[in-house]
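Two entries, shown back to back:
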Amino acid sequence: MARKSRKAAVSGLMEKDTANATQEMKTYRTAAYARLSVEDSKNPDCDTIENQLSLVRDYIASRPYLTQTAEYIDNGVSGTRFDRPEFTRMVNDMRAGENDCIVVKDLSRLGRNYLETGDYLEKIFPFFGIRFIAVTDGYDSTASSAADDGLIVPLKNLINEAYAKDMSKKVSTAIDIKQRQGKFVGSRAPYGYRKSPEDKNQLIVDKEASPIVVRIFECKAAGMGNGAVARMLNEEGIASPMRYKYEKGLTKNKRYADGLWNDSTIAAIILNPVYIGDMEQGIQKEAMYMGIKKHKPERSGRIYVAGTHEPVVSRELFDKVQELVEERKQKVIAEREKYAHVERKENIFIHTVFCGDCGGSLNLHRKARKAAGGVKVCYDYICPNSESYGEKFCKRKRIKMQELEEAVGAALRLHINLFLDTKAVLENLNRTAQAKQIKDGYRRQMAETRNRMERAQSMNSSLYSDYADGLLNERDYLYAKRKYVKEAEEMAQKLSELAAVQATYEAEYAGGGGMEETIGRYADFQELSSEIVHALVRRIVFFGEGRVEIEYTFADEMKEFVELAECRKGEVLCTKEETV
């Protein structure tokens, strides 16, 4: 009788929801991903980004269960690394639930590193419920044959990695030969030069930018500092090297559109022997096939070839600037060694303090000088760009380390006290009879929801035996299963939400996300330390004239916690009045 009544119940469900009487086919929000290790080739027979995207788009368009929602393109990025900009953006979107399927041309587009590619296919994608399809490899993670690919896919990944290492060896060898021949192998010519239209490995003088290079060397020879030279060029509106390349269409990255000169740019130009017609290459080296990661070798390990192209400045002018640079360098070293015995303070705000104008990271400057009774040492945070950019772009900023420590310490103590006071208020409110009454109401809702969830799970688990005994046909079985699974999932979600709300009525509740533990660990701090700053402070912005803005690691949780306490006051008061 029970089974017959269940069949009747299923029929009743179908009558109430005829629109879902047939099994629905899931539609996947699909991301198309393409990658190429080199810039797009002009060879039409080459595997270009356009060819990859065309293949993937056609595949998605021909399948009604796939709906393309996004495209991600990494052009000129090696498959041996997984910190690719667009791949990272795609993974972040995946984690945010914006896509549930990824389609690529073949497995090598995902990556050529055997271990990391395997992690994504076997662990990460399945964990986030992502369907992964490699078109030309015939791989689909949801297909019944996917299990049979358990050996094939790792083998292909190994082959892809071996191919990448082989290509690395060939490319590294070819580049080394060209460098020793004095040929330019960089992706972009140095500022003041262009690549020859006839030979991309040959540099020719850029008649428009080269006079600026000469002027920079002349200013340095006259005794101007790097920051002063940069400020002069910025104030005159002369485009910086990357902005110049952007304006000439040599790069399409919009972040260079407003780029400015700075002391680092000047330093890079005046030290580069390319401007006297010599070629120094191998400044950064990497060899995947040998396991050598990207690094900067010593000058003796670089490749230097003289007289490879037309110079922009004379050797006499270049040598004079080098002498001045070395003289300045030795003076700085001597000054440092003079007071090297004086104890240095730790930079507790490292990578945390930024300029309110240019956004640059403030550097800690240590200045020691003789004073009555010994040596006086001053520590100041200074914006490194204020001298280079000029007042128009970045006002000069300086704040003493002690002043910043006092300001941040006072702000942290204020927020810690706010948290402790709010916690005490919420604890008292949660102990009232009205709050306990509300908490009991949530407990009853949770019990009812749990019963409904367990009932749906029980009904679902017994459906197959009814189907096997012929009491339900396939259509009814699939329909009922989908209904009970959906109901169980909805009840589980509701139960989780009710439990989260009910937890806020516990007397000891102190917010979520570990805020109580983080703040509690440093609640009684006497002196700021690097550990405290990086645990409680995400970012400090200095605008000058004593104005400091602090972004806390617990800001969102604190806001929700304070709002909860305010809401609880009104809630308890309202319940109390209704009871009366």
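entry 2 starts here
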Amino acid sequence: MRKLISAACCCVMLSVSAQNTSIDVTHYGLKIHLNDTSNRISVTEQIEFSWIDTSQLVQFDLESTQSNGKGMLVSSVFDQSKSISYKQVGELLILDDLKAAGRKQISLVINYAGIPSDGLVISANKYGERTFFGDNWPNRAHLWFACNDHPSDKATISYSVTAPKYYEVIANGEQLNRIDINEHEATTSFSSNIVLPTKVMVIGVANFDSKKVANPLSPIEISLWVYPQNSEKSFYDLELAKDIFNYYISWIGPYEYEKLANVQSTTRFGGMENAGCIFYDENAFNGRRTSESLIAHEIAHQWFGNSASESDWQHIWLSEGFATYFTDLYLEQKYGTERMQKQLAKERADVIQFYRQYPHPIVDSTYENLMDLLNENSYQKGAWVLHMLRNRIGDELFHQSIVAYYEKFRLSNATSQDFIQVVQEVCQQDLNTFFNEWLFQSGHPQLKIGKKIKGKSIKLSIQQVQKEHFTDIPITVEITFEDGSKLQEQFKLTGKTNVFNFKYSKKITQILIDPNVQLLFEEK
């Protein structure tokens, strides 16, 4: 996703939910009824799951009715047509008398209704028209449907959405049908047979214009869903999705989902990577294609974040750092290395500035609010780790490592250690020091650099002045001579103070540190 788009969003507190490992959900089936007379929704939900630890009561995440009148009130729970007793406590639905009885797979039907406090955003778009958009990241799915709201528990999902018939409906998966129920309502059904984390399970209901984009390189349907009032400009901007999509398939591997719908929406984020159904902020499109990086970022998430997902929140860089760097790679292949370097330089400046406010490592388990993880460490610094890894091991091994990681953890979950292990296996190198210093330690090299040029000689002194310990830092300098020729020298910083002497046959006029933008550092 792209980060928060308004200051008002920052005040939302999303507590860290405990991972529920006693169950493994395999399928959600949602029958949702929406209306235009109120924000109240009614849901009949089927949940299929394995009860792994039968010594624990079965419970699902679902926000109960709050003092402000919002939340979901359960009216019944059935197990094979047998009524099950339950209680709602805070944000949990707890089943009191469910019996395993040797069954490997259990299927429940839960009926509930209410006004979502969040998660399903019911509002008006910038044109004043009513819209309904799922907006689940990180753990807001349970604010509108019962689930195991954690990225580690993936499941398939189907939707049956009944709404006033003048709306169009989009959701994850393949559209099965649209049936008129009566004079005023229609039901639209979708089904995804690909396992998804709850954070990217969504519906979108609005007045849309839609368009399919021809793509002879892939049978996957690419579609665009936009508000009619600016459809021409939005379609033009979003048609970039085709080339981005094709580039990632060629670099990473096959696309997993049934389709790639690109949807103008009215939700919290600048972009949200919902699986096969990306939502973009309603103001992102102006007919000048200024949102190319946004589109590239969200499409990259279809591989990293949606398919290969972080196993727990602190490993979010495996999603956001990867999407940020793959946006950089896309820009490099389309516009050239100089464009990528300019982007990396900006990202480096962002990381340095953020460190001054929040000196924490990328893999950070000290957060209290999950929204805090949407920061420059997860995005830009995560991207820089991948960039430095690429420069350390070379393009070929970097490509092999990323492909091997994705193939191993596609449609699954991974930790940072899982990624490290794959890279080391591919490279046959010990990279633990590199990853420990850049992922699990805060900070970055802060370098006090002294340059003394005397004719044909250089004395270069580089002192690390940061409190954190970094070893084996590769650095490049570019030397410009009087005749205009240039030479690059590479060496390593191994201690706090490093002194290098160079002598050449020509007079030296200039020294440039890190000319290729390959090191995350700050010059003091």
